[in-house]
Design a protein that fits this description.
The protein is 49% helix and 17% strand. By secondary structure, the chain is α/β, with parallel strands linked by helices. Helix 1 links the parallel strand 2 (14-19) and strand 3 (51-56).
């Protein structure tokens, strides 16, 4: 499938998705959001892919939504735009692959929200991130009010959202918004290195662990425990668990593609 605003690069079990509107700092318009959704659907269907890396072309990750499109929105159009964004980010968040955000530059508004929907966030040392919507008289509309408090705590999230200020990579690392920071020129390489490490681990185990973590965030402690028990038991219905445990006892690397 051909895309106008994004690039997909396949490297065996890893796919790199680049948002490609550098002339507008990769701002998200409806066309780009719908293209991203189609790309995520394609990646979901590809059983070979185990890790998705999302990044941006040029000096931005995503510098926000496309203001030139939003400026004349009616309430109905704003609702539809927000629904499109939420649907896309839910697909990213619940994708049965590991999703790494390689934040190569400005990640503002919708860009920050895309990063929040990813499993792991890596950031360039000179990048900036934030939710500046209130400076424009609007609020985050793609899940920033929901995911940011879960990741950083409500106090930090409220400060970032209420002030609309950008923060640098060091501050993002300090508050737990990103996992690691790297020089910009090494960011994508380090994201690939992390992806390569992940694909040496049990494929089903990672899928089930992601389900356990994501679902438990919306459950009580007791419900989360029961959910984890079910997934742990389900894991043992696969040949993967037997192979991984046997390989450990035999002091060898597991062969996840082994038939028996």
């Amino acid at each position: 499938m051909e895309f106008k605003n994004i690039i997909l690069e396949y490297e065996e079990e890893i796919v790199i998705l680049k948002i490609n509107r550098p002339q507008v700092l990769n701002a998200l318009n409806t066309e780009t959001i719908l293209e991203l959704e189609k790309a995520i659907d394609l990646i979901k269907e590809n059983e070979k892919i185990r890790v998705l890396i999302i990044t941006g072309e040029g000096k931005a990750f995503v510098a926000g939504a496309d203001i030139s499109e939003m400026v004349n929105f009616s309430p109905f159009e704003a609702e539809r735009f927000s629904c499109n964004g939420h649907r896309l980010l839910s697909k990213i968040e619940n994708l049965d692959k590991v999703v790494i955000a390689a934040i190569n530059g400005y990640a503002l508004g919708g860009g920050c929200e895309i990063a929040l929907a990813c499993d792991i966030r890596l950031m360039a040392e000179d990048a900036k991130i934030g939710q500046p919507e209130v400076k424009l008289g609007i609020i985050p509309g793609f899940g920033g009010n929901i995911r940011l408090p879960k990741i950083c705590g409500s106090g930090i999230a409220k400060e970032l959202i209420f002030t609309g200020e950008m923060i640098d990579a060091n501050e993002a690392l300090r508050i737990g918004l990103v996992n690691k920071i790297y020089p910009r020129e090494k960011l994508l390489e380090e994201a690939k290195n992390l992806a390569k490490k992940i694909i040496t681990r049990g494929p089903l185990a990672i899928k089930l662990a992601k389900q356990a973590i994501n679902q438990s965030l919306n459950m009580s402690i007791e419900q989360a425990k029961e959910w984890e028990i079910k997934l742990f038991a389900l894991n043992f219905s696969s040949k993967e668990a037997k192979e991984g445990l046997k390989a450990f006892l035999e002091k060898r690397e597991p062969n996840w593609k082994k038939e028996e």
